[in-house]
C-alpha cells in the first residue's frame, strides 16, 4: 500500500494525476476507499518503482516558478516632470501666453505659422524632403487642451520608461520611437494629410516598455526565465493595444495611424535597446547625460530649422 513515508498520498483532487503517472510507466495499481480513506495499492515487487515515480512527481510540483533577475531602476520622475514642464512652456511661448516673455533671438511667429512650418505635412515631408517635420511635429500641439491631455496620459508611461532605462536613454528612445512613428505615418498617409502632437511618442513609450520587458530579461541559456520575460512584454504590448483602441482612435482629429505606428516603433526600439542592454550592461552616468544632451540637441536643431528657414 503506497500511502505513507515520503510518498504519502496527495489530496483527493490530485489523486488522478498520481494514477496517470503510474499508468504511464505501466505499473498496475488498484484503489480502495474514498476521501481521506482513499488508498493506492501496487504489486509488492513494483512498490519501490511506484514510490520513486510519485516522489519524482512531488519534487517536480515543488519546483519554484522562474523569476527574472531584478533589473536596476532609476529614480528620476522629477526630471521627467521637468521635461514635460519645458514642453508645456515651449507651447506657451509658441502660442504667446501672456505671462511668458519671448525667447531672445527667437522670431515672434504666430501660432499658425509654427504649425505650417513644423507640422507633419505629408506632401512637404515626402515631396520636398522636409523630414525634420517628423521631429518638430512632436513638439507642436493644436491647442492647450491637446497639450495637457497628452501630458496627463503620457507622464506615467514616460516615467516608467525612464525609470527602467534611465532619464537620458529613456528620453532618447522616446524621441526615436516618436520620430520613427511619424516617418511611417508620412509614408502611409496620402499627400493631403497633416498631423502634429507628442502623442505618437507617448504611445511609443508603451511599446518601449514592452520591448524592454520582453528582451532585456531574455537569455537563451535560461529558457523558462526568458519565456516569462517574453510573455510579460507581450502582455504589456497587448494592454497598450487595448489603450490604443480605447483612447487612441477617438475623435475626428485623432490620428490613429500615428498612434499605432508609434506603438509598433516603440516596441521595436525598446526590443533592440533591451537586447543591447543585456549584452553591454547599464549605461554609465556620462552616457545617460550624453543621450539626454543628444535628445535636446535634436529637438533644438529641428525647431531651429522651423524658426530660421
Overall description:
- The chain is built from 12 helices and 4 strands; from the N terminus they run αββαααβααααβαααα.
- By secondary structure, it is mainly α.
- The longest helix is centred in the C-terminal third of the chain and has 25 residues.
- About 2% of the residues have low confidence.
Notable traits:
309 residues; mainly alpha; 64% helix; elongated
Task: Summarize it.
By secondary structure, the protein is mainly α. It has two domains: 8-61, no CATH class; 77-307, Rhomboid-like (Rhomboid-like fold), CATH 1.20.1540.10.
In CATH, the architecture of the largest domain is Up-down Bundle
Instruction: Assign the CATH class of the largest domain.
Output: Mainly Alpha
Proportion of residues in helical segments: 55-70%
Helix vs. strand class? mainly alpha
Question: In terms of per-residue confidence, which ranges show pLDDT below 50 for 5 or more consecutive residues?
Answer: 219-223
Mean pLDDT: 79
Rg: 29 Å
Query: What is the fold-level CATH name, i.e. the topology of the largest domain?
Result: Rhomboid-like fold
Q: What's the CATH H-level homologous superfamily of the largest domain?
A: Rhomboid-like
Amino acid at each position: 500500500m503506497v500511502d505513507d513515508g515520503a510518498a504519502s498520498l496527495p489530496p483527493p483532487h490530485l489523486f488522478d494525476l498520481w494514477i496517470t503517472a503510474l499508468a504511464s510507466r505501466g505499473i498496475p495499481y488498484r484503489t480502495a476507499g474514498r476521501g481521506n480513506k482513499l488508498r493506492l495499492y501496487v504489486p509488492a515487487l513494483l512498490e519501490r518503482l511506484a514510490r520513486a515515480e510519485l516522489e519524482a512527481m512531488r519534487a517536480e510540483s515543488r519546483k519554484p516558478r522562474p523569476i527574472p533577475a531584478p533589473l536596476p531602476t532609476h529614480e528620476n520622475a522629477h526630471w521627467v516632470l521637468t521635461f514635460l514642464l519645458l514642453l508645456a512652456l515651449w507651447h506657451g511661448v509658441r502660442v504667446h501666453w501672456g505671462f511668458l516673455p519671448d525667447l531672445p533671438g527667437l522670431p515672434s511667429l504666430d501660432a499658425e505659422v509654427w504649425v505650417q512650418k513644423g507640422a507633419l505635412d505629408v506632401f512637404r515631408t515626402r515631396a520636398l524632403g522636409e523630414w525634420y517635420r517628423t521631429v518638430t511635429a512632436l513638439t507642436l500641439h493644436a491647442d492647450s487642451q491637446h497639450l495637457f491631455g497628452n501630458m496627463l496620459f503620457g507622464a506615467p508611461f514616460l516615467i516608467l520608461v525612464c525609470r527602467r532605462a534611465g532619464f537620458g536613454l529613456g528620453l532618447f528612445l522616446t524621441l526615436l520611437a516618436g520620430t520613427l512613428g511619424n516617418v511611417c505615418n508620412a509614408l502611409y498617409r496620402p499627400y493631403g494629410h497633416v498631423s502634429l502632437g507628442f502623442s505618437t511618442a507617448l504611445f511609443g513609450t508603451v511599446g518601449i516598455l514592452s520591448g524592454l520587458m520582453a528582451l532585456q530579461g531574455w537569455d537563451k541559456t535560461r529558457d523558462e526565465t526568458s519565456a516569462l520575460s517574453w510573455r510579460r512584454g507581450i502582455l504589456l504590448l497587448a494592454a497598450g493595444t487595448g489603450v490604443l483602441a480605447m483612447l487612441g482612435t477617438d475623435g475626428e482629429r485623432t490620428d490613429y495611424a500615428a498612434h499605432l505606428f508609434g506603438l509598433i516603433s516603440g516596441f521595436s526600439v525598446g526590443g533592440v535597446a533591451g537586447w543591447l542592454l543585456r549584452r553591454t550592461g547599464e549605461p554609465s552616468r556620462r552616457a545617460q547625460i550624453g543621450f539626454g544632451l543628444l535628445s535636446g540637441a535634436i529637438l533644438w536643431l529641428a525647431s531651429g530649422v522651423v524658426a530660421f528657414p
